[in-house]
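User: Here's a structure from my thesis project, written as structure tokens. My advisor, Dr. K., wants to see whether a designed sequence matches the one we expressed. Can you design one independently, without my sequence as a hint?
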């Protein structure tokens, strides 16, 4: 897990500014909280639910924006552990996962959330979730945990990745043209051509942790992670090229913009952009110097989630070092 996100787990609650929320039996909470400062909550992921932006983070809170990140309102979920990732199949159906085996789902675009008990995931951390469409979701995380849902996240079944002995922390599963790509710690890279029923581990370019993977418009795979490492494959993972970024700060998340540019974000305000499908990256930094966990596109710019909550990021304000 990323260094600053580990710290976030330990200091969850620091800097929060929210109205008192009455706890219900079993630790559940009412749906909407109206007074969380979006710049003073640690957030781990951000995605779209149709035109809406949804971000998740500490204490099981989510924030939603219906005006491209200009304003945010908080929505409590029935869990109180940090949520690490969120994925939507469409503008209504979504699933978020997190620490302590937490799984919550929504059928109204994040206006309300329902907890789903996944006993085999407790008490470990789920680190990611992927929507494959048709009500099919994947949830995965610590010690090789990997679960499949075929009913929109209402129930889950555990599956094996690579082998029964596989226990590496899984960071992300990405669907690319009918093939699933998995990245994990110890440089693990694997692919599945049967929707995750079986996995083939491919030769890895790196022995350290990989935190994410994106696919360029030309089909190139871009994997990234610790110590500023970026690797690119143009032959379906058979070989990988090291893309030198010129620094050792970890990359935590990334996205492909509507015009094909690839943007990666990381610790200490790191933002890297590629205009050639990942063959090279220009590295810049946010002057605030606070870590970013995830990034999404909005008209005219970017919105980032991380150590300083969620905020719009004007690329013209980024600086080179």
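Assistant: Designed independently from the structure alone:
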């Amino acid at each position: 897990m990323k260094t600053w996100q580990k710290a976030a787990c330990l200091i969850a609650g620091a800097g929060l500014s929210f109205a008192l929320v009455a706890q219900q039996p079993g630790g559940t909470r009412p749906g909407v909280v109206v007074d969380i400062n979006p710049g003073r909550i640690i957030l781990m992921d951000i995605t779209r639910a149709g035109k809406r932006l949804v971000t998740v983070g500490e204490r099981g809170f989510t924030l939603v924006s219906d005006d491209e990140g200009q304003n945010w309102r908080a929505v409590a979920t029935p869990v109180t552990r940090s949520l690490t990732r969120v994925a939507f199949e469409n503008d209504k159906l979504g699933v978020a996962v997190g620490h302590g085996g937490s799984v919550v789902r929504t059928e109204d675009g994040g206006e309300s959330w329902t907890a789903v008990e996944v006993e085999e995931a407790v008490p470990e951390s789920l680190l990611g979730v992927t929507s494959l469409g048709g009500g099919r979701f994947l949830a995965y995380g610590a010690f090789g945990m990997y679960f499949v849902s075929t009913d929109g996240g209402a129930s889950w079944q555990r599956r094996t990745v690579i082998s029964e002995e596989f226990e590496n922390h899984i960071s992300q599963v990405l669907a690319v043209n009918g093939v699933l790509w998995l990245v994990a710690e110890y440089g693990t890279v694997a692919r599945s051509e049967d929707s995750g029923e079986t996995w083939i581990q491919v030769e890895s370019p790196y022995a350290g942790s990989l935190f994410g993977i994106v696919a360029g418009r030309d089909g190139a795979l871009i994997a990234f992670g610790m110590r500023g490492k970026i690797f690119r494959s143009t032959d379906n993972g058979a070989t990988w090229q090291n893309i030198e970024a010129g620094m050792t700060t970890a990359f935590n998340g990334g996205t492909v913009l509507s015009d094909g540019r690839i943007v990666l974000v990381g610790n200490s305000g790191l933002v890297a952009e590629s205009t050639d499908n990942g063959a090279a990256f220009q590295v810049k930094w946010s002057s605030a110097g606070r870590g970013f966990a995830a990034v999404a596109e909005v008209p005219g710019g970017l919105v980032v989630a991380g150590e300083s909550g969620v905020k719009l990021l004007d690329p013209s304000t980024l600086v080179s070092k």
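When you compare it with your expressed construct, this may help: The helical segments are 3-10.
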